[in-house]
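hiii so my PI (J.) wants the whole complex modelled not just the main chain, which honestly fair. so below is everything: two entries, each one labled with what it is. i double checked the lines twice but i was tired so who knows lol
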Amino acid sequence: MASLFVAAIVVSHAQAENLNRVLETIENQDHPINQVVVVETGGDQQSTESAKRHGFSSVMAPDVRLGLAIQSGIDSLAQAPGWLWILHDDSFPEPTALSHLARAAEISPSVAIIGPKLLDARNPIRIQQLGLTVTKTGRPFLQVQNEYDQGQFDSSGDSFAVSTAGMLISLDAWQRLGGLNDKTPPLAQDLELGAKARAAGFRVVVEPKARVLHHQLSASGKRDRKWLGGSLTQAISKSHLHMATLLSPALLVVLGYLMLPLIFLASIPVLLLAKRPGRIFGQLKGWLWAWGTISSRLAARRQLRGLGSVKSLGGLKAGFSEVRKRRKARFSQEPMRDSDSVAGFFSSNSGWLSIIVLAASARLFPQGALLSDSLSPIGRSFDSIWNATAIYLHGGSIPSDPFGQFYLLMAAIYPQSPSIALASFVFAAPTLAFIASWQLGSIFFQKIWVRSLIGLTYALVIVLPAAMNLQIVELVSLTFSPWAIYFLIRASRAYNNSRAWRWTGLAGIALVLVAISSIVLFLLLAVVSIGLGIYRHRRSLIILAALIPGAALVSPWVIWIVKSGNWELLTVSAAASSGPFQFELGNPVVIAGIIILATSMFGIFRGNLKLVSVLTALMIFGFAAALYQPWVSSYPLLGFALLCALVLTGIGLDSLNLKRVSAIFGAVLFSATSIGGLYFGALASSQIDFGDDRLMPALVVAASEVSPNVKTLKITAGEQITAEVIEGDGISIDEVHFLDWIQPSPVQEVAEIAKLTALLVAANQNGVAELLNQTQIDFILLEGEDPLWSKPIESSLNSMVQMQPAGNTKYGVLWKTEVIKTQDVESPPRDQIRDLMLLVIAGFALLAIPTTATLRGYRRLEVGEMQ
Amino acid sequence: MRIAIRIQIALLVLGFVFASWVFVPQLYESRTIAQNEATETSVDPANLQLVCPGAFVQVGGSDGTYLGAIERLPSAIVNYHSTADSLLSEPEATLIDFGLFEVQSSDQSTDLLNANQLQEVATSRASGLAGIDCSMPKAAGWFVGAEASVGTESVLILSNPNPTEVTISLEFIAPSGATQDQVTLASGETKLLPLAKYVVADEAFAVRFESNSSEVSATMQSRNTSGLTATGVELSGAIAEPLLQSFFPGAKDLTGGYQLPILRVFNPGDVTASVEVFAQGAGPETSLGVHELEAGEIASIDLEVPIDATGVAVVSTQPVLTAVKNFVVQPKLDFAWILPAQEFSELAVIASPAENSVLSLANPNSSPVNVTIQAGQVYQTFELGVGMMLDAEVPKGSARILSSGKFVANLSVFADAGYSVLTPGNNQNLGSNLEILVR
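here's the output for the full assembly
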């Protein structure tokens, strides 16, 4: 058979050692090569000398662009060949490669481009590539990828395109097609060339018998990113966009480019769900690149269409089934067992112990709104809580309590009755804390009984008292801080970045709840995060990202504190916080804490020294912070310190090898924990009442649903007459803000209310009408248990002509006034800051949602490759 | 080496805990949220109204046999003291139906207006002196002196001085059980309710009234007989609320042991009350015994008051309603219901309706007070020690009592027609110097 007149063009980029090997393989070809030119694009002199040593010519290309480099090589040829054999400095053809390629060229005159079978140079029995194509949308797709070569693909056939690594192309075709377009993204150049050849009527085939070993330096990130124009992922995205522009109908192209911003926005939640948040920036860059280089895309499209019809390309694109099959293959690894734990929470039957905690919390079983002297119901609807918990109050002058967003969460969980949601949380909190501390224990302890014991102790002795005393703010911190620590540690130890992001998403949400309930504890956990980031520095950014939503939510509060210089308020996050914790020996929690501290000594002497040092330091920090309580309880910090002490205790117990000693120790501690559970739970003296979540008489509530600016003057009759203006349907706990408490009301308002109350009490009509109109009071509510005081005032009110009796209610005696409403309450403007914060939290929520792979226990191959 | 580090860590923990427990609480003070201070504001109070209940009510006709016959026996005589330039309303000097005093002033007290009525009753079935302090209308109150056994009769006199109709709920609590009723009074209407129909011949029972809207005048008329002999009449006002401590100046044995004073006690609460009675006079007080009253129990206790005592005081572990029935035999058989004396601060003015009136004073404070009584041109000054009661004779006319502290007072009227005790009240509406705490 006649030999083709072939010139080999080897494109090299400062890979002298590889180049030398390539040149040797060229020398070993059994098909004659008339000319060999080495085109050095990296300015490496060694490459030039290597070419000289082999007796080949070389040229220095002006830059890295492949098309220009190849053209430089063509231009340097002494004679115009019939065919060009293009090789890269990482492609090593077998001795018979060229001859097989040439035979394919000779068999069919219409064939203009022939590509070899590319095999992995590190593992020659694996097929790296056998032809290139695109998906229906234009995304680059390898027809064969990472398959073992068992001869199953050894029949030659048409392909959409072939890689330039080992490509044999007719010079005529090269010239007619204009060669490689250097304005095209590098990973799309081969595809565009193949498409142009097809459009011009040429055939592009793969010849599997021609075998070339390929290192794939570019795709594996071993080349300078400048060549790819960014990361591999970005390069693939650009190629996708380019090919879609070339191949899609014109209308779709126009619509597609116009919709790029929407596509970018839509990709954000998708990428968060896929645990690839880093790609969001890449998506943005891609969109901007697309709009910025649209002229080049359109020029390439024009050129392609000018060569002929692209209809024939449809049959060569990858079908949906191929794409789906390739996606599944990414999860083809067996589900991995987590080697860190012996058994999980449920598989170890520790889940049954939750019943103990639930039983201890039985008195808290939700039967209505929780009521106590220190806790009034929260708002009755999502809307009312939304309005009450805006980030800033009073036109932006002061920030609202950060903890208000927790009430919003309760309202989001059960909008019809947020009070029930809150009551349910209080009931479930000790159990959640038990599960959290058990899971946290699974990181430190091997023995199941130790995890269970530590979990029960934390739940029954530390968390349960807060629940029984309806200390909502402290309860949130105590429940979610162990979760936050657990998620942070899991993020630092995750198998891959995607898994780490998922744990970070969960940690972010848990840290939000900690931040809004205890800023100081959040700061302490931030220190823990930084420590974990330093310990696992590769994951540091991912771990620290967990702090973003919490920091965002408390930032208005912190900024205000910094501006006002009132640093003590950093210890406060809610008006509903309890008073300072009583560090007295008479406090049962203090006694329990002393016992826990004593048992932690055991762990200090038995555990790993580094771990013990860290835990001890955290315990001391937590305890030190807990002692400073200028305004409200620091119980969450004390709880954190005791949690560290419990972990130390658990470490000590876990190290016990003598079964009998372990059994005795365990039994004693378990009994003590159970007693604690009974004492703090079923036998606790706390007053827990459930009731209606209504705060005002039904008439007032109904009126406030119609009009938002209903005001009620509540007069409490007694030795001290008290007057209070209540807006709307009552002051629920979400409407009480700490900074309002410490800032006095405007003097004029107080004087007006006092005067009006005095006139009403004294049954003096003079000026009542004017004051009612000034203060816009719609209802008067008289309460007072002592009839000695309440009856005379009731009689006074009954004698006032402006008062219409509205009946006796359980809240007191009610009158409707004849006020002329003049004030229109404007709807509060949209709180854009909160919208932004909620968006950030939503992002982390998306990160937290597990992928199907995670649920099935599969692990994704992390190598960036084309589909 | 490692064990040394561990020991150091353990000591660090223990040392830190100990040191911070001891020292840190001293370094700062926990803040408390400052409460708003009460705003003092003065407004003109409502007009001061005093209602005199009117003349004695005769039930059943002159011989008591006419069924359904209820009529008033003329006339009650009104006495009053006022420093107002003019009164908005002033009843006749003699009353059949109720009489209304009304005065407008921002500074209200007994000095502004104080009134009472007295009536000498002398019929075959009723004999004695019926007197009562004309008091401010009330929205609710109690009577513990109601009786419906043989030889006793109680009539409830309800008057509505308001311009609008009012409905009054009545509750009768007797050992035989409790009953309720409701009466409606038009504006200016008076209803006379013999109470025998509400109870089953109970010797003693309590009555509670409550208005649904405006305040009303409520008075209890009591009549005693012994066989065919009339042994006394009295009018008594309502007690506002149960108290833990009550003073009865003037409650003493005026019969030489013939008929001891009777303490009527009613425990309206849910818990057993322990009641101790003290006799007070010029010297140290004397305990007259402790009595246990179960929830809802009403008891009548004879008081063996020493001869030198001026009155009694009652102290209870639970709020109770009390009154003392005091008897005289000379010049006529009569009795008076002595109600818990009202507390005055610094000044009280009482219109003494008769020459032989005795002002009885007590000191409810924990320290002595100095008291000066001015009646006409006569001044009497006393030091009233803790737990002391004393009497002072005052002539007819205004008696002004000035004190360095709080005191309580009753006025006992002795006349040929009989005996009555007037319990003056604080004639003052809310308005002046009100302290309103605005939250």
